[in-house]
């Protein structure tokens, strides 16, 4: 079969506006993962085990509703297309609910934990309304793998900007303002503005995007999940991404503890975070080149190995006394950040190709279903990372405190922090690599005669390849 003609390039304005959505999604993902657990235990005086539940349980709710959101998104019919009404819902709700997480009334302990949990449930629901259609769009607005890669590169560019500015600036701003409840309120208001800019830019800028083909939406949620279960490429990619996201969740949740209790300087969180996240922008072209040269699976295995090496090296931090503790930890997190960059870009690129191939072969619109399951797994994994770190803290006997009083930590708690930042994420990464080794690399590089660029009509009604 001859290759279909290449589509004309999408306008640069569409690339930029789509990418700007990552200002919102990355800010929401990274900032709570970085500061929420610490905010609960060290500002609101919530015990570590309770704080871990607060971080984890709202995400379970999100996992339950996200697949349904994907199905509803697939079935949506409007003049705006199936995705943009949901983007608008995110514009209207995500900034407000995110700010509410840190705009707590004067509460502490379990009462504060209850308030934050409710606000977090609302915020993660709003995030889902925006995230599901945002990930689904590239597979539908263009049939070109190359142009989907361009869209994804812009997404990751703005994700890197958000992670550096919001993730690095949020704890610095809160600390500069005193590190108390009022300081976190100001931080939340500023970041809500970032969320508004990102979501609104994507909604307005994608109005010129080509509407997806009128593919028949799939059937019930149960039927769609059954389809996903019969697609081993998607399942292995989903499990791999979940494990790699869990390792990222542990690192984000533990960074402030590493700075405060291991490095011995709460202000070290800013350079630590910069070392962790700066490679997300700097090394993205290198990982893109590696994926083209080695294939996406091989590149993802390589990036995971780099990540694991950096985390394991953190275990040796106490061996370096002052003034070498901080520089050594910065170096370790710089290595971790190089691996983290590839682990963020490559799975999403592989998912986009998988969804386009599925639509081309099946003739059904179910990108929302795939992204719903993907987002559910990602959400649960990020929360699991923070929850696992909180569990390690609790087992280690970590003593909670408030902004007004710092509690002395036993040696067992310091060891727990160190293990939670080194051995735990390295083990999760190794598990992800084992799953990834069974992923079919043919899914990364579709053969020319099976190109999905033209969404071949002859493929409609046939099942996607499932050979593993």
Automatic annotation (TrEMBL):
<dbReference type="GO" id="GO:0005886">
    <property type="term" value="C:plasma membrane"/>
</dbReference>
<dbReference type="GO" id="GO:0015293">
    <property type="term" value="F:symporter activity"/>
</dbReference>
<feature type="region of interest" description="Disordered">
    <location>
        <begin position="441"/>
        <end position="468"/>
    </location>
</feature>
<feature type="transmembrane region" description="Helical">
    <location>
        <begin position="186"/>
        <end position="205"/>
    </location>
</feature>
<dbReference type="Pfam" id="PF13347">
    <property type="entry name" value="MFS_2"/>
</dbReference>
<feature type="transmembrane region" description="Helical">
    <location>
        <begin position="85"/>
        <end position="105"/>
    </location>
</feature>
<keyword id="KW-0812">Transmembrane</keyword>
<feature type="transmembrane region" description="Helical">
    <location>
        <begin position="300"/>
        <end position="321"/>
    </location>
</feature>
<keyword id="KW-1133">Transmembrane helix</keyword>
<keyword id="KW-0472">Membrane</keyword>
<feature type="transmembrane region" description="Helical">
    <location>
        <begin position="151"/>
        <end position="174"/>
    </location>
</feature>
<dbReference type="InterPro" id="IPR036259">
    <property type="entry name" value="MFS_trans_sf"/>
</dbReference>
<feature type="transmembrane region" description="Helical">
    <location>
        <begin position="266"/>
        <end position="288"/>
    </location>
</feature>
<feature type="transmembrane region" description="Helical">
    <location>
        <begin position="111"/>
        <end position="130"/>
    </location>
</feature>
<feature type="transmembrane region" description="Helical">
    <location>
        <begin position="327"/>
        <end position="346"/>
    </location>
</feature>
<feature type="transmembrane region" description="Helical">
    <location>
        <begin position="367"/>
        <end position="393"/>
    </location>
</feature>
<protein>
    <submittedName>
        <fullName>GPH family glycoside/pentoside/hexuronide:cation symporter</fullName>
    </submittedName>
</protein>
<feature type="transmembrane region" description="Helical">
    <location>
        <begin position="413"/>
        <end position="436"/>
    </location>
</feature>
<feature type="transmembrane region" description="Helical">
    <location>
        <begin position="53"/>
        <end position="73"/>
    </location>
</feature>
<dbReference type="InterPro" id="IPR039672">
    <property type="entry name" value="MFS_2"/>
</dbReference>
<feature type="compositionally biased region" description="Basic and acidic residues">
    <location>
        <begin position="441"/>
        <end position="455"/>
    </location>
</feature>
<feature type="transmembrane region" description="Helical">
    <location>
        <begin position="21"/>
        <end position="41"/>
    </location>
</feature>
<feature type="transmembrane region" description="Helical">
    <location>
        <begin position="234"/>
        <end position="254"/>
    </location>
</feature>
<dbReference type="GO" id="GO:0008643">
    <property type="term" value="P:carbohydrate transport"/>
</dbReference>
